[in-house]
Design brief:
The chain is of the alpha/beta class and 223 residues long. The protein is 41% helix and 18% strand. The model has no long low-confidence stretch (mean pLDDT 95).
Length: 223
């Protein structure tokens, strides 16, 4: 199956309300346009330079998500147009987003990234670190940032029970944060978890947003 069929097949199998982010990092514009023609409007990138050039060259109704580890000195390049930033793991980064949001007169939407995997290599907060951020006076001053939910990556393993447990952990964190800090904020609604290998499990455990690359575009190409 080609990109169009892959996209349509995956999209058709999603539960109602689950958003599909097509992970287009390293993919050429013609591949992205194929998915776009099939109806995809949300694409995820993890390199700022690649993202900005794709934004310039591709249709303007695409909603771009940044799904990598974002360095604060690169925020200014994507602040004018980014739809959602998936991986916020520090107050410092939120302050930079707020500054750039103010400059561009737009509120920047983002997700708090949590470390739910057993692998040490993954970035992310634990629950207490998130609470420390959300209860800090500095956070209360951020007017150009909106936290819209949580994100996490499960361990890369064939053990589906472990993956399921990690997804359940993230769902639990989301529920606790919603109850304690975002009860009156209807936009705090996203649980971004699940990738090409485990997105179906993630949806079963409450994901509202899955990030699928190789199952749409084929295996990754490294330049």
């Amino acid at each position: 199956m080609g990109i169009v069929d892959n996209y349509k097949h995956i999209h058709a199998g999603l539960k109602e309300g689950v958003k599909l982010v097509a992970v287009s990092k390293t993919k050429p514009n013609e591949d992205i346009l194929e998915a776009y023609e099939a109806g995809c409007r949300i694409f995820g990138e993890n390199k700022v330079q690649e993202l900005t050039s794709k934004y310039e060259e591709l249709p303007k109704d695409i909603e771009w998500h940044f799904i990598g580890h974002l360095q604060s000195n690169k925020v200014k390049y994507i602040a004018p147009f980014i739809g959602l930033i998936h991986g916020i793991d520090s107050l410092k980064l939120l302050k930079v987003l707020n500054k750039e949001g103010r400059k561009n007169d737009r509120i920047i939407s983002c997700l708090l990234q949590f470390h739910i995997a057993e692998e040490q290599s993954k970035f992310g907060l634990d629950y207490q670190e998130a609470v420390d951020i959300l209860t800090s006076p500095a956070f209360a001053d951020l007017q150009f940032v909106e936290i819209r939910g949580v994100m996490g990556m499960a361990t890369y393993t064939d053990d589906s029970n472990q993956v399921r447990k990690e997804f359940q952990t993230l769902k639990g964190i989301f529920s606790r944060l919603k109850e304690a800090y975002f009860q009156n904020q209807s936009s705090f609604a996203e649980i971004s978890m699940g990738m090409s290998g485990d997105y179906q499990l993630a949806i079963e455990e409450g994901s509202t947003m899955v990030r699928v690359g190789s199952k749409i575009f084929g295996e990754r190409q490294y330049h």
